[in-house]
Specification:
This protein has helices spanning 6-19, 23-40, 52-64, 69-88, 116-124, 130-144, 150-154, 183-192, 213-237, 246-259, 264-271, 288-303; strands at 161-162, 165-169, 176-180. It is mainly α and 310 residues long. The chain has a three-stranded antiparallel beta sheet.
Length: 310
């Protein structure tokens, strides 16, 4: 009887994800496969080799290597997905309790929001380095654009600005977003767009606009890594000691609004979150004018109060 190979099944699934343009998911499955291969110490892993004891030992192995519970969960869910597909096709033995005792949930991560004082320093502390000034301009714009995720910020196109309003769809969910461009944002836009090539479709120079498919995905991941490195350099120059990534900007925006007493419904809409919760029904009732006023007040509360520091 033929022994079907888990590694082959995983690679076929990764190839399918790439064909569908789901490059981020493909990378996640590849990372899980690479990790499992290192643990098993073999290039061929028949499905019959994978049992509950092996998975429990793999879980202990990941813990011993300092992996977070969320990373462990991700790897295990990737293995379960491919094993489940093989089981449906009769290529893997049926096992009702194969993943019993294996963590596949989500543990709350430590808050990434920055203290308001640190945000003020990042936005306003004197700088001489022109590259760090560009990083600051991007940080301020992402905050002004309702805590915009870097993936959306990097993919903004010149055609997304119409009539003083930024209109775009979130990369992650496809949610249509509207952001009124404040006067201070116009100044920052002009400064940051100075480095964008004239024939590029994008607002900013993070992406070339010449890549497609997996090459475009790699270009974006490289741009994200570069931006996160620049944020760390900016934090060091401003005397900010907290860990900072592009996500810190988004999380800090939401936290600042919460501390100002803004409703969770408004925060969710400003961030472009999707949810099936009943409270989300009320989100559509907020007008662009009201969201713009709240967004502007949030930024100015931090940016214009430098004189009060100390």
């Amino acid at each position: 009887m033929k022994q079907y190979d888990f590694v082959e099944g995983m690679r076929m699934y990764i190839a399918r994800l790439r064909e569908q343009g789901r490059y981020s998911s493909a990378k996640s499955y590849q990372d899980a496969l690479n990790s499992f291969l290192r643990f098993c110490g073999r290039e061929v892993i028949p499905y019959i080799y994978i049992d509950r004891e092996i998975l429990l030992r793999y879980q202990d192995y990941l813990q011993g290597r300092g992996c977070s519970w969320n990373t462990i969960s991700t790897y295990m869910r990737r293995i379960r997905r491919v094993y489940g597909l093989a089981m449906e096709k009769g290529e893997a033995p049926f096992s009702r309790y194969l993943f019993k005792g294996i963590f596949m949930g989500v543990k709350s991560k430590q808050k990434k929001a920055l203290p308001m004082e640190s945000l003020r320093l990042l936005m306003t502390d004197p700088l001489d380095d022109p590259e760090l000034l560009k990083t600051r301009q991007a940080l301020c714009l992402m905050f002004l654009f309702c805590g915009m995720a870097f993936v959306d910020f990097a993919h903004l196109k010149k055609s997304d600005i119409r009539g003083g309003v930024l209109r775009y769809n979130r990369q992650k969910t496809g949610t249509p977003m509207l952001v009124e461009i404040q006067p201070v944002a116009k100044e920052l836009l002009a400064a940051l767009m100075a480095g964008t090539l004239q024939d590029s479709p994008y607002l900013f120079a993070f992406l070339s606009g010449t890549k497609t498919g997996e090459e475009a995905f790699r270009e974006y991941t490289s741009a994200l890594a570069d931006f996160n490195r620049s944020l760390k350099e900016l934090a060091k120059a401003c005397g900010v000691t907290e860990m900072i990534t592009s996500y810190s900007i988004r999380h800090s925006f939401a936290t600042a609004l919460k501390e100002q007493g803004v409703s969770i419904e408004m925060i969710s809409e400003l961030l472009g979150h999707q949810s099936i919760k009943t409270t989300q029904i009320y989100l559509k009732s907020f007008s662009l004018d009201k969201m713009s006023a709240v967004n502007k007040a949030c930024f100015e509360n931090i940016y214009n109060n430098v004189s009060k520091v100390g």
